[in-house]
Write the structure tokens for this entry.
Amino acid sequence: MSESSPFLAQLDDPERVFDARPGTDPCVLLLSRACDTDLEPVVRLLAGAGVRTARLNAEELAATSLTVTADGRAVRLNGRPLAPTVTWIRHFAPSAVTDGCPGTARTAFLRDSWQAAAGQLAELSGTAIRPDRPGVLAQLRLARRHGVAVPRTVLTTDPHLVRDAFDGPRVVVKAAHHHFVEPAPGRLYGIFPTVLDRAALAGGPRPGPPVLVQEYVEHRAELRVYFVAGRLHAYEVGKADPAVPWTAPERLDVRALPAPPPEAAAATRTLAAALDLRYGAFDFLLGAGAPVFLEVNPDGDWRWAERRTGGTPVTAAVAAMLAALHHQAVRELREHAP
């Protein structure tokens, strides 16, 4: 049989080379929480496409076994040898980690150590998608530099001292960081944006925690734009109260848009590039003028919008993004294999 026959030519096809050596199981590594149900349909889609996944949930870390060699070429997770191709860190909160002894130095050390390990796992992957982002003030400054409309915003420990910084009758008070705190693992306390009359900004006996005070922008709806590896998926959202997405999601009025408004699309792409994002959930207000940018969340959830509208475009886009990054990393592993 000729060496140039189609049968023997298979031996020259890199797509038919499979690495069966111990310690190499190329997979997408997902670091999140057990309650992060957005990832479940993504994992199913990836499995259907032949892409393996591994998942680390913050609540389960006290019983998790992990070994990583110094050169980063061998990872063993709960006895399973892995070669992480893509690591996505989202909702991976140290406050969810517990060993049954909350409030002890041992638990604090466990949380700090796993936070460090998560960062090092991301470093040795072919691609890392992290939740790192600048604070809201930095995001708003960046948007303003790029000509994107933003609301006037102040970070303060004394809201009553900044009443005169705003012209309108109402303001919004927001957390300076996350919308949830977790004093005990598994118990999330929500602290959501609150709309107040500007005159109601009252002083306290001493400075409180830093909060964001923002001008209230009149709007007919909010706009959520998901940026997924260059693709945009938009939803128009109506709600009676800022806390509704968490406290009463069934009262949300959500409408899928065929495309975001052109100005919002341009702003999303500009800011995603400036922040070097592969994924981000961008929030805007839609009123009489240009869309007003509020913030971007690099681990923002999307299934709530899909459930209300009946489609799964963001889920499909996320799975496609992870699969493409995985296949790229696998090709690079093959090219550099000894």
